């Protein structure tokens, strides 16, 4: 019963009116490939595929789930056909170099693609999504030979890839990884160990699967400094570069999960599997972390995707379902009751979803431009350029991942709530969105890890607060331009106040942390959410400014489109931004509130 | 993998130290039945049953779900055996009169029972739970003959009951009910229509099911004033009072749901089913509403139950799972990493759960004493007494239902989050708690309905704000006693400030509502959550005061028990109460933020 239409008008508003992607593309080596016409064609093609091929198999895929039989994983009905169409359309390689069969378009288009296909069918989109991680690793760290061997097939999509990090005893704390890699005489390695939670670890969509695996060399130092990265193909490529001998990696089982049940989450057993070192020995974790930004933004997109899907499906129900009369007077006198969209509380939930979807998309698109530059650094083998943009992106990553995925859960919840009891029934699909959205705050680093990365690492350790000073200065400069603008001043005054507060809070936490390191963990979640709400407020103010401008000077859209942007911004500032108050107060609470209780006194159940 | 221990020490702390239930019971007609020894015995018996019989079939029941075959519903393995044990123990009737086979204990013990069995296995507990609604209806509105015919079996538990309200076109807005009741010559009626979402509508646990059904008489006025209440047994009782002829009510299907899959949610088709009017014609909705308070508090208990269960199962995992080192220094030097319970952010989540569970329980127990008085009014046929206490309870009901169920969802989410990726895997059970908890904000009136009931009906319409003035005065009087107490003053100052704010906000909303009725709906969710947080703050302050007193003057528990109460109160005031700020700001936002957008401008997807 769920439906999806790619929000192309909102997407183009951001690409053309808010961020001017065409101007940005002019600065990129591969930017000329992304002229306006090509971008339109790509967007339309992805939208068609998502709406007509992926959406129809989303609910049925969840119901059927993946099948596991003696090491073989079969994806639900229609998944393979959809994947074949995806490969035929060349969609896997749109942002990879032409020498490997890609279209060499900017990476931002790949992120925009992820949103559209992910909104239509998140679990399906994980299959090509995981390949991306594998491709990125090979692009940046593979030898010429490794690239030649694997990238053609992966970029084409006829082979898929995975990232094998987690083991039963550790997820976040990869220093505990135990998988072993024993060097062989021919420069290969034999890998043994168990990896769990491997998305797309085994499936029937492609003829081969290339695993990127974290493991330890025999002489490796303990902890995170002794982890290396290996390529372990399911089938070893033969001399012709085609599928050869079966390797010693097998799927032991698939997980039964709350949601994303059509995405195979695998236990992979490596039993003297042949592997090849990629990158430098013992530097695997560092290499891994260079992809964290893109992988985590990819998960941030999941938050956006589920927000958008919940909104798109709550809206028609709210227009259709009738209950009671509206407090301000009868709205549909000829009907037995008013449509529930007339009730302010229902509008509140819809507007939260709308504000989160369009605000979140703006945040992602802003970051996507950094991803373009970063990816250009990789393509040119220019480490300095890569690192410069990777660093810049590093501030946004934990916010996009941590904050937007939390909003995805909240939006899915509102979607169910608007349906009343029907929101709990499988047939309608709203509960599926809620179940699928739930994973996003757990994988690719929990919200707690994002929060610690933001406050502990990026804000306090690496920049001593400078990153917040810089970011808020840029907001305040922007606000300054509108200080006397009668339309915009309500937004910019509120934002300016928040910028000042954000700095003050950062300084307070910095001072507190000097004496009490635990305050960083204690405050981190409030700091993350606070940062997210303010950042999204800035994006809404910018969108409102563009909308006012278009209303005055004419735009490609009807006036109602821009008016709705302004009204959503107003709603966001009136009803959502106040949430910052609680987080501001909460984050400076003494860490003792959390640390004082002795472990054995949390419960008295005996 | 889930486990449960009834938190008897916390329960007794509330019953004995905080609220002095023994003193309260002395004022009740049936209070002498509830001497300390009996209460202990009852609690222990329920705890044993919940821990050993219900918990072991909770996860398996979810996995198996209910079976539907041609009108017959079969509950999962073990459900019937557990139900038989429940009947044998006499647990269904503990708070009903001895003349019908009950134990005639105060109604509060029934609520406490609901928490314990509901925490162990919420969906199972819905079978006897729905019977309670049916019993209460018969107790208050049944004729002597109707009581005699049905109450013995229902109180015993060998027959079960339901409440049949919702139809496909309406849930909340019962004025739209279409089911028809045609009078017959023998004083019976023939009912026809379709009811949906009927919990326990059909099952194999009992030999008969007694449906209480809302339907319209042929000459009934339109809307809510034309609804009557009927008794429709699955099998008509024969002359001996045993199961006789099959009636024309049948189960058309059961719903496939996000959770509570072992609780049968039925479509019931009434096809000229024989029914008997209960109460006055066309006064069915009013009769129904007299049970809303208890039914809704019962759902509030679900919020508490899922909070408690999520907490009890997150705690051992947080002690067991090891990841990283704690920011304030290594905590488990002999281990590969520190247990995650040492991280302040993990403690934050555990303490939220703990604060919500123990605070929520305190709020329920407070209200349970009103339920005792109310139920005494029913037993004595004293309408005035019933209404007096029903009115008092009416202020607490939307908060207990609306607020505690939202907290249940949040607590279950933290439970999953503490498990990281394992929180998403069925085997661990944390995801089941989250799926089951999700229904609680939708049935028995959504959170939006509770919010409207609280702000629109109870606070503004019925009392013009007096109810808030009275409640906050009582808090402030209590605070006054501790104003100079060095331990307590941090709590009472914060509470006093909030009480003042709560009144100011109420007055502001009242003034706004004079010109703009829609503000009531627009502000209602923020007002509900604000009220809940302040009320829970008051309960935590009271528990802290008792704990300080026991620490000084000696109590039945070890000092650590009381210290933990105080530490949890401190956590609540430091980290949770700040949430009121955002709600305070948000609730007085202009309703235009929600109402301004034209319906057709919510999305531009064509």
Automatic annotation (TrEMBL), chains A, B:
* Gene Ontology terms, MF aspect: flavin adenine dinucleotide binding; oxidoreductase activity, acting on the CH-CH group of donors
> Where in the numbering of this chain does the Acetyl-CoA dehydrogenase-like C-terminal domain appear?
485-597
Q: What is its EC number?
A: 1.3.99.41
This protein's record includes keyword Oxidoreductase: yes
Q: Which InterPro entries match?
A: Acyl-CoA_dh-like_C_dom (IPR025878), Acyl-CoA_Oxase/DH_mid-dom (IPR006091), Acyl-CoA_Oxase/DH_mid-dom_sf (IPR046373), AcylCo_DH-like_C (IPR036250), AcylCo_DH/oxidase_C (IPR009075), AcylCoA_DH/ox_N (IPR013786), AcylCoA_DH/ox_N_sf (IPR037069), AcylCoA_DH/oxidase_NM_dom_sf (IPR009100)
Keywords, comma-separated and alphabetical: FAD, Flavoprotein, Oxidoreductase
The chain positions of domain Acyl-CoA dehydrogenase/oxidase C-terminal read 282-453
Q: Does the keyword Oxidoreductase apply?
A: yes
Q: Which residues form the Acyl-CoA oxidase/dehydrogenase middle domain?
A: 163-272
Per its Swiss-Prot or TrEMBL entry, what cofactor is needed? FAD
Reactions catalysed:
3-(methylsulfanyl)propanoyl-CoA + oxidized [electron-transfer flavoprotein] + H(+) = 3-(methylsulfanyl)acryloyl-CoA + reduced [electron-transfer flavoprotein]
Domain Acyl-CoA dehydrogenase/oxidase N-terminal, which positions? 38-157
Q: Report which superkingdom the organism of origin falls in.
A: Bacteria
The first-level EC class reads oxidoreductase
Family that this chain belongs to: Belongs to the acyl-CoA dehydrogenase family.
Q: What does this protein do?
A: Involved in the assimilation of dimethylsulphoniopropionate (DMSP), an important compound in the fixation of carbon in marine phytoplankton, by mediating the conversion of 3-(methylthio)propanoyl-CoA (MMPA-CoA) to 3-(methylthio)acryloyl-CoA (MTA-CoA).
Q: What is this protein called?
A: 3-methylmercaptopropionyl-CoA dehydrogenase
What is the organism of origin for this protein? Psychrobacter frigidicola
């Amino acid at each position: 019963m769920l439906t999806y239409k790619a929000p192309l008008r909102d997407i183009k508003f951001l690409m053309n009116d808010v961020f001017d992607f065409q101007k940005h593309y002019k600065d990129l080596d591969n930017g000329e490939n992304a002229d306006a016409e090509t971008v339109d064609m790509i967007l339309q093609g992805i939208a068609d595929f998502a709406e007509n091929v992926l959406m129809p198999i989303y609910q049925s895929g969840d119901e059927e789930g993946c099948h596991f039989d003696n090491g073989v994983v079969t994806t639900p009905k229609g998944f393979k056909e959809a994947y074949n169409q995806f490969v035929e359309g060349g969609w896997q390689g749109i942002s990879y170099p032409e020498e490997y069969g890609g279209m060499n378009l900017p990476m931002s288009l790949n992120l925009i693609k992820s949103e559209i296909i992910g909104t239509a069918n998140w679990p399906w989109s994980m299959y090509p999504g995981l390949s991306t991680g594998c491709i990125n690793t090979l692009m940046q760290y593979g030898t010429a030979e490794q690239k030649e061997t694997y990238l053609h097939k992966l970029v084409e999509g006829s082979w898929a890839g995975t990232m094998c990090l987690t083991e039963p005893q550790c997820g976040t704390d990869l220093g505990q990884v135990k998988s072993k890699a024993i060097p062989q005489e021919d420069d290969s390695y034999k890998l043994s160990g168990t990896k769990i939670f491997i998305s797309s670890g085994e499936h029937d969509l492609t003829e081969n699967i290339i695993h990127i695996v974290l493991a330890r060399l025999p002489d490796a130092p303990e902890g995170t400094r002794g982890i290396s990265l290996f390529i372990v193909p399911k089938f070893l490529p033969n001399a012709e570069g085609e599928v050869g001998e079966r390797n010693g990696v097998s799927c032991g089982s698939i997980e039964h999960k709350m949601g994303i049940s059509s995405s195979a989450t695998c236990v992979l057993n490596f039993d003297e599997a042949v592997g090849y070192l990629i990158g430098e020995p013992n530097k695997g974790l560092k290499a891994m972390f260079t992809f964290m930004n893109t992988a985590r933004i990819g998960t941030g997109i999941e938050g956006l995707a589920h927000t958008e899907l919940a909104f798109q499906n709550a809206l028609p129900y709210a227009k259709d379902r009738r209950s009671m009369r509206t407090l301000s007077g009868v709205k549909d006198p000829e009907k037995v009751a008013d449509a529930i969209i007339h009730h302010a509380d229902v509008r509140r939930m819809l507007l939260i979803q709308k504000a989160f979807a369009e605000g979140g998309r703006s945040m992602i698109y802003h970051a996507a431009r950094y991803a373009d530059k970063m990816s250009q650094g990789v393509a040119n083998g220019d480490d300095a350029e890569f690192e410069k943009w990777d660093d810049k992106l590093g501030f946004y990553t934990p916010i996009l991942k941590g904050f937007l995925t939390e909003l995805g859960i909240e939006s899915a919840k509102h979607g169910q709530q608007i349906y009343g009891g029907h929101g709990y029934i499988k047939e309608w699909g709203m509960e599926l969105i809620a179940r699928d959205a739930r994973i996003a705050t757990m994988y690719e680093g929990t919200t707690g890890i994002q929060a610690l990365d933001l406050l502990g690492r990026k804000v306090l350790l690496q920049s001593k607060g400078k990153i917040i000073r810089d970011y808020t200065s840029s907001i305040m400069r922007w606000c300054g331009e509108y200080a006397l603008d009668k339309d915009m001043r309500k937004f910019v005054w509120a934002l300016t106040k928040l910028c000042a507060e954000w700095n003050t809070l950062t300084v307070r936490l910095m001072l507190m942390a000097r004496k009490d390191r635990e305050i960083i963990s204690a405050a981190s979640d409030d700091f993350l959410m606070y940062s997210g709400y303010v950042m999204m407020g800035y994006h809404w103010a910018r969108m409102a400014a563009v909308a006012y401008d278009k209303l005055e000077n004419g735009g490609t859209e009807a006036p109602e489109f821009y008016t709705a942007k302004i009204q959503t911004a107003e709603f966001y500032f009136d009803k959502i931004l106040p949430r910052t108050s609680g987080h501001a107060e909460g984050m400076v609470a003494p860490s003792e509130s959390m640390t004082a209780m002795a472990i054995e006194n949390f419960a008295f159940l005996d």
